[in-house]
């Protein structure tokens, strides 16, 4: 599975959009991009995933570049409760690993009042 | 509401003792997973199961055992052979076999040594 690179930390003002970048330059054609977040002492929470098209759900939007080498998670109106560690994962869910998740260091997003 | 329930939230183990962590899901998911998370580190896969009565070792299975007798349950036993069991243990599940559907996690069990 391709490795990802994320900034270690980001800040965002409450009510503003939070844009979290992720580089995955070695992604292959059958690998999906997944985003999770983890609030301290809780289990990771699934946010969104996509293959090559942009995706949107009730939590966030996922923008994947045309070459698929990078993506951006957008939280449109950040709240204090969005403060968490955000993980970008690239995964071939249909491969022999059967979806083993490997979290890197992630991005610590801090939302300020 | 559907979800994954892990219990207990906190668990203490004495030297030489086996302890069992519970994981129950009512999402009708076929696949279930156990991960270990250490402070400042990512997830490491302990065991996974794609179907009832079948499971495979992950990357760090030594000192752990599992069973999958029911679709909704995937308990993890931390045996006395696991010399460094202090960690945050996470159970996850997902639908189907090899697919792009995401894994969903429980809220974890924090295991400490007395």
Overview in brief:
The complex is a heterodimer of chains A (113) and B (114). Chain A has strands at residues 9-13, 18-23, 32-38, 45-50, 55-56, 61-64, 70-75, 84-91, 107-112. With 113 residues, chain A is an all-beta fold.
Provide an overview of this structure.
The complex is a heterodimer of chains A (113) and B (114). Chain A has 113 residues and is an all-beta fold. Chain A is 0% helix and 44% strand. Chain A is built from no helices and 9 strands. Chain A has strands spanning 9-13, 18-23, 32-38, 45-50, 55-56, 61-64, 70-75, 84-91, 107-112. Chain A has a 5-stranded mixed β-sheet with strand order 1-9-8-3-4, with no helix packed on it. In chain A, strands 2-7-6-5 form a 4-stranded antiparallel β-sheet, with no helix packed on it. In chain A, a hairpin with a 6-residue loop joins strand 3 (32-38) and strand 4. Chain A starts with 8 loop residues before the first strand and ends with a strand. The termini of chain B are far apart. Chain B has strands spanning 4-7, 10-13, 19-25, 31-37, 43-51, 54-57, 64-66, 76-78, 87-94, 104-105, 109-113. Chain B has 114 residues and is an all-beta fold. In chain B, the strands form 2 sheets. In chain B, strands 2, 4, 5, 6, 9, 10 and 11 form a 7-stranded mixed β-sheet that branches. Chain B has a 4-stranded antiparallel β-sheet with strand order 1-3-8-7, with no helix packed on it. At the A-B interface, strand 4 of A face strand 4, strand 5, strand 9 and strand 10 of B.
């Amino acid at each position: 599975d391709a490795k990802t690179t994320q900034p270690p930390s980001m800040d965002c003002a409450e009510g503003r959009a939070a844009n979290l970048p992720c580089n995955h330059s070695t992604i292959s054609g059958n690998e999906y991009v997944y985003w999770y977040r983890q609030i301290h002492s809780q289990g990771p929470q699934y946010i969104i995933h996509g293959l090559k098209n942009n995706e949107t759900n009730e939590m966030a939007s996922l923008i994947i570049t045309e070459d698929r080498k990078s993506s951006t998670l957008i939280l449109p109106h950040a709240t204090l409760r969005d403060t968490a560690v955000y993980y970008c994962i690239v995964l071939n869910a249909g491969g022999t690993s059967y979806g083993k998740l490997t979290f890197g260091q992630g991005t610590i997003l801090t939302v300020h009042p | 509401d559907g979800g994954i329930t892990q219990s207990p939230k906190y668990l203490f183990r004495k030297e030489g003792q086996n302890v069992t962590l519970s994981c129950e899901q009512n999402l009708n998911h076929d696949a279930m997973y156990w991960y270990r998370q250490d402070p400042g580190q990512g997830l490491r896969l302990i065991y996974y199961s794609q179907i009832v009565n079948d499971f495979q070792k992950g990357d760090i299975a030594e000192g752990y055992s599992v069973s999958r007798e029911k679709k909704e349950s995937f308990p993890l036993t931390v045996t006395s052979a696991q010399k460094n069991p202090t960690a945050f243990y996470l159970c996850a599940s997902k639908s189907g076999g090899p697919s792009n559907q995401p894994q969903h996690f429980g809220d974890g069990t924090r295991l400490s040594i007395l």
